[in-house]
Amino acid sequence: MNTLEIILNERDFNYKIFKKINDGETSEIFLGEFNGRKSIFKLTKRNNFNLIINEYLKSGVIENISKKNVTPNILFYEKKIGLLIYEYIEIESKNKILKNIQSIGEQLKKFHQIKFNKRTKTYKDQFNLYINKLNSESKNNYLKEAIELFNDLKMHENENENVFSHNDLNANNILMSKNNIFFIDFEYSSINNKYFDISKIIDSLNLNNSEISKFLFGYGIEGNTKEVNKKIKRWSLMNTYTELIWAKYINKFNKNFLNEAYLKLLASKIKQQKL
pLDDT tens, 22-80? Predict the structure, then answer.
């Protein structure tokens, strides 16, 4: 009997666990049934990497996420043990998602309107955590460049652009079912600039100019102007720097947890983005 089953049995829940479908650095994810409904069970791991995570489970944020209908139907959660159970949905293909790109912008806007507590951790807190752990590599160009870009973005930041940000909206975390768009996996969410998520979606889904315009229109940004393009480009680069720094941070705790090929791919992507 695994930890999840022990927890569920202690609460006398009506459940079935079919299989584990993911085992990441922050959580284990299982497919099963909860009260007769096909469900996803997400159990937070012990934070052995000392990450700043799960801000969405604090200060009522998860209730607001549920009310906004931007994530699959949440069936149960308990902050103390880090257990989240939500309804399983049959997902559509990427091509169908791209045909609803304006809806993704609309859903992201709704998500960014979620109210957060002033004590909620920020992207700056997360970034500084990674940097401080990697201070022995301070002479590395990627680290110096990332810090310079981060400081420049913060210096010219409009505070009105700060939102409760998902921070990891890769293609796997954007789902569509019956023409409804949902986001999942909020572990790394924090207060951040809205263009962090905007640029991540554009990059992750490899949107063309027409799709970008529809996506931005859905979000409420009219006109793909030079200023908007510049913000998207710079935050897209910041996204990749952050992913590389995060990966190196993780490997500091657990050598080769993330393979070298992945790190090289990120470094190569940064070179391309800087052109």
Answer: 999 999 999 999 999 999 999 999 999 999 999 998 878 999 999 999 999 999 999 99
Q: By the 8 A CB rule, do 112 and 163 touch?
A: yes
Select from 127, 29, 47 the least CA-distant residue to 84. 29
- Determine the structural domain holding residue 81 and report its residue range: 3-87
Task: Name the residue type at position 137.
Answer: E
71 and 140 co-located in one domain:
no
Identify which of 1, 87, 81 has the alpha carbon closest to the alpha carbon of residue 44: 81
- Per-residue tokens: 5: 């089953």
Report whether pLDDT(138) > 70: no
Query: Token pair for residue 200?
Result: 């991540």
Question: Residue 183 belongs to what H/E stretch?
Answer: strand 180-183
Same-domain status, 51 and 99: no
State whether 33 and 104 are in the same domain.
no
110 and 233 in a single domain? The answer is yes
Q: Which residue has the tokens 């479908």?
A: 21
Please indicate, yes or no, whether residues 60 and 39 belong to a single structural domain of this protein.
yes
